[in-house]
Design a protein that fits this description.
heterodimer, A: 207 residues, alpha/beta, globular, B: MetI-like fold, 11 helices, disordered C terminus
Chain lengths: 207, 232
């Protein structure tokens, strides 16, 4: 079982509820803006505490209200691609990329930095600061940073947003390759249903 | 250069710089710690905030008198420090430095707190999700991103220390070569006949030092801010 998400959480006036157990590598989450897609990812990453329920990813319990277990974010090993990238503005691209890698255990790492740099085509950006990157460039760097942190699973929040069609197709193919070759579990969030349908083994619609 | 000021005047300038640098160095870790604390929500925050800001709104003479009560030779803190660390404050330059430190604290805390609050919490979350424990996220994200505020706080505190008068003269007195800093020396010069030349030269030095502190802090903040202006 890749994902077992059985949680509820109230954010402001909205109530997010999900109850799903998915065996496939990619679980797609769709729904309109404000349905709580990002809040759900934050719960899985440990940045937001559910009111109740339990979260299990690839056999490891990350949160369980019944037993009081609540792993802090730094121990969940989530590769989180934030919708707003969140690159560190005071660090060069190279230092952004290596931030999580340096904190990971060597035996957990599964992809060398050069492979990620080649895969994402960001070799020419390494000496730049995030403020000088275009939207698409920043997106790829943020994805690279997440991949290099030796994650057990990926949380992808609208990964194709702010990308032009050609670059979006590239990132899509890359995600497909990660799914097929690396079998790394992914939560894929998008409001575009065709994207989710193409990638995901299971789809959950939040309303 | 040395002929611009007399030996006594150089001594006054040197003492002022020594007192101000010591005051700022002493205050910095406390100010940053308080700023970090006050950027958080906790019970009693309003009271701590008010206490930190007290020297800003109290008459400086009252602050000096309170320091005398606490840090004088018979005061609880002063007695303990004299016995265990061998440092006396009254009539000493250390007292002038302590008075300046207390007066500079609110300004330094304000500048640092604003810059800590300006650090995007989402960046700290990103660091945590990448495997950073809270203290490492603080050291690698919050601290460097609040650096412009720390520098601005240092310079504000330094300028405030250079100008400290009321608390210093009340607490540490006005002893030539020991606690007679620039403002005290200017005040003393005005009390004696023929002191105008001294007063003029020291006033010019004061203006130049304060201007230099302002310009340096502006420059440092701009240099830091240039590439940190945007959060992508």
């Amino acid at each position: 079982m890749s994902f077992e998400l059985r949680i509820s959480r109230t954010v402001g006036a909205a109530r997010i509820e999900i109850d799903v157990a998915a065996a496939g590598a990619v679980l797609g989450i769709t729904g309109p803006s404000g349905a709580g897609k990002t809040s759900l990812l934050n719960c899985v990453a440990g940045l937001l505490r559910p009111d109740s329920g339990r979260i299990v990813v690839a056999g490891e319990i990350l949160f369980d209200r019944a037993t009081g277990l609540d792993l802090p974010p730094e121990r969940r090993r989530a590769g989180y691609l934030f919708q707003d990238n969140r690159l560190f503005p005071h660090l060069k691209v190279s230092d952004n990329l290596s931030y999580g890698e340096k904190l990971s255990r060597p035996e957990h790492r599964w992809i060398p930095p050069q492979d990620v740099i080649d895969l994402l085509g960001i070799g020419h950006l390494l000496d730049r600061y995030p403020a000088t990157l275009s939207g698409g460039e920043a997106r790829r760097v943020a994805l690279g940073r997440a991949l290099l942190s030796a994650p057990r699973f990926l949380l992808l929040d609208e990964p194709l947003a702010h990308l032009d069609a050609a670059r979006g197709e590239e990132v899509m193919r890359m995600i497909e390759r990660m799914r097929d070759e690396l079998h790394i579990p992914m939560l894929y969030v998008s409001h575009v249903e065709s994207e989710v349908a193409r990638l995901a083994d299971d789809v959950v619609a939040l309303v | 250069m040395t002929s611009l000021l007399t030996a006594t005047e150089w001594e006054i300038v040197g003492l002022s710089l020594k007192v101000s640098v010591a005051a700022v160095a002493l205050t910095m870790p406390f100010a940053y710690g308080l700023a970090w604390l006050l950027a958080r929500r906790f019970p009693g925050r309003m009271i701590l905030d008010a206490a930190v800001h007290l020297p800003l709104v109290l008459p400086p003479v009252v602050t000096g008198w309170l320091l005398l009560l606490a840090f004088g030779p018979n005061g609880p803190a002063g007695g303990w420090i004299a016995a265990h660390l061998g440092i006396a404050f009254v009539f000493r330059w250390t007292g002038a430095a302590l008075a300046a430190a207390v007066m500079a604290l609110p300004l330094m805390v304000r500048a640092m707190r604003l810059s800590i609050e300006a650090v995007d919490h989402r960046l700290v979350q990103a660091a945590r999700s990448l495997g950073a424990r809270p203290w490492r996220a603080f050291l690698t994200i919050t601290l460097p991103l609040s650096l412009p505020g720390i520098l601005a706080g240092l310079m504000l505190g330094f300028a405030r220390s250079l100008g400290e008068f009321g608390a210093t003269i009340t607490f540490a007195s006005n002893i030539p070569g020991e606690t007679r800093t620039l403002p005290l020396a200017i005040y003393s010069g005005l009390q004696v006949p023929g002191g105008e030349a001294l007063v003029t030269r020291l006033a010019i030095v004061s203006v130049l030092l304060s201007l230099a502190a302002l310009i340096v802090s502006e420059w440092l903040v701009r240099r830091q801010g240039g590439r940190r202006a945007h959060v992508l």
